[in-house]
Design brief:
globular; alpha+beta; CNF1/YfiH-like putative cysteine hydrolases; 24% strand
Length: 253
């Protein structure tokens, strides 16, 4: 990822940077000065700073009430501003957002879960996905690709995908009850003699879903950063039970 050292620091992905018709971001978030969670003090003001740094209108930002569901919302101009600087207006019970409306910024919030961005340059449409372990195990990323195909005519082979910072396999220890949910992606369940419990590779599981949905492997970029033990101080709930959240978003120009 590429760091943009603005007044409000953020990262971008190299594969998405190649497309000038969009803007996107991953917030760095290692202190209260960059926390965009509306439940944290200063969260709303920091969202304003983020919008100015990236270059989108705050009243065009849209977020969902993330509940680890498989619900995918088609965001239109009528939804502009929902959940931008207040919680009550978020799109209810929604973990993936898709749109083909220019100027709309789709954003998901994470603090160990997997954020995924999709962009289709052929239909000029995009998605922002929140994939926790439940969403990953239930295939929300693949379902979102299917939804974009139905709604916008997306050919999955045209999609450019970015998988953001999340808890990596090194730190995501789970019980056998959780591991059983990943039977469709057994490669993502890791067991080692020095690990008392299995570990899940959420990045790999989501990459496999994208490839199975028809996204070309060379079009998928991953951040390579673990939120719990990696650099840059990304917010991690498992590390310190923080209220802080990473914002990952995409804007159609």
């Amino acid at each position: 990822m590429n760091l943009h050292s603005t007044d409000f620091p953020f990262f971008t992905f190299g594969n998405l940077d190649k497309h000038g018709a969009i803007k996107h971001f991953v917030t760095s978030g290692n202190s209260s000065l960059t926390d965009i969670n509306l439940r944290s003090e200063g969260g709303a003001a920091n969202r304003q700073r983020l919008a100015q740094a990236v270059g989108f209108e705050i009243d065009r930002l849209v977020t969902g009430e993330q509940t680890h569901s498989l619900n995918i919302a088609v965001v239109t101009d009528a939804d502009a501003g929902r959940g931008s600087v207040d919680i009550d207006s978020r799109i209810p019970c929604t973990d993936a957002l898709i749109t083909n409306c220019k100027g709309i910024c789709l954003m998901v919030l994470t603090a160990d879960c997997v954020p995924v961005l999709l962009y289709d340059p052929a239909t000029h449409s995009a998605a922002a996905i929140h994939a926790g372990w439940r969403g990953t195990a239930n295939g929300i990323v693949g379902l979102t690709v299917e939804k974009m195909s139905r709604e916008f005519g997306t050919n999955p082979s045209n999609l450019v995908a970015a998988i953001g910072p999340c808890i990596a396999a090194c730190c995501f220890e789970v019980g056998d009850d959780v591991a059983e949910h990943f039977s469709r992606w057994p490669e993502a369940v890791l067991r080692r003699s020095n690990w008392p419990k299995p570990h899940i590779d959420l990045v790999l599981a989501n990459r496999l879903q994208l490839e199975q949905a028809g996204v070309l492997p060379q079009n998928i970029e991953t951040s390579g950063h673990c939120t719990k033990c990696g650099p840059h101080g990304f917010f991690s709930y498992r590390r310190n039970q923080t209220l802080g959240r990473i914002g990952t978003g995409i804007v159609l120009g």
